[in-house]
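Forum > Structural Biology > Help requests

Title: Can anyone predict the 3D structure of PIG-L family deacetylase?

Hi all, first post here. I have the sequence for PIG-L family deacetylase but no way to get a structure on my laptop. I'd be grateful if someone could post the structure tokens.
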Amino acid sequence: MSDELQPMPDDWSTALAVVAHPDDIEFGAAGAVASWTAAGKSVSYLLLTRGEAGIDGMPPEEAAAVREAEQRESASIVGVEQVTFLDHADGVIEYGLPLRRRIAEEIRRHRPELVIGFNHHERFLSGRWNPPDHRNTGRALLDAVGDAGNRWIFRDLGLEPWEGVRHVAIANSPHPTHAVDVTDSIDKAVASLEAHRAYLAGLRPPVRDVRGPLTAMARQTGERFGGRLAIAFELIPR
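Reply #1:
Sure, ran it for you. Structure tokens for PIG-L family deacetylase below:
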């Protein structure tokens, strides 16, 4: 793999981000989303859970409502208007045909040219183990992109197949290949993550500084992208 990251393809106008939890997009892709929407591209979010198991000091029923509201606010900051939740149980997402079917249904419904996912590998770049919700969601998404384009798979959905996905980009991957310049959108990236106030406050220890780590990450990525602040993605060949 070359040390230099390549620019993300620009030959698309609609995108769908598919992740397991509220905050997944903000911890790695929101700056790019803000850059894309500012350029006139349309991005929608699909969340498999409401993140109800993510705040130890808050009952799941309360946390689900709080985190949904935080995600919607966060999305609006970066220019995303359409946010859909699928109500899978947080923490116990299982890979399998039902999950592939549900994601394929949404791909056929949204008909995106770019699909954005979250790290599906076993580990993060830091070496830290990647939780099963991330792995199972990401792998099901990769398979569902193919499923969505095959009219003979999940025929009962009653939706026309969609073969128009040109690119699949994975955020927070330990194997990045491409990047997006976020110099002009880093403030929105910070604000979108800060919108997850209850979640960040509920972490142990609480996260109080968002700008420092996000900017440092963008600067580090930029060392492989012409020195500009950047967000990295692994582009999966289609």
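The CA atoms of residues 47 and 85 lie 5 Å apart. Residues 6-236 form a domain with the Rossmann fold fold (CATH 3.40.50.10320).
Shout if anything looks off.
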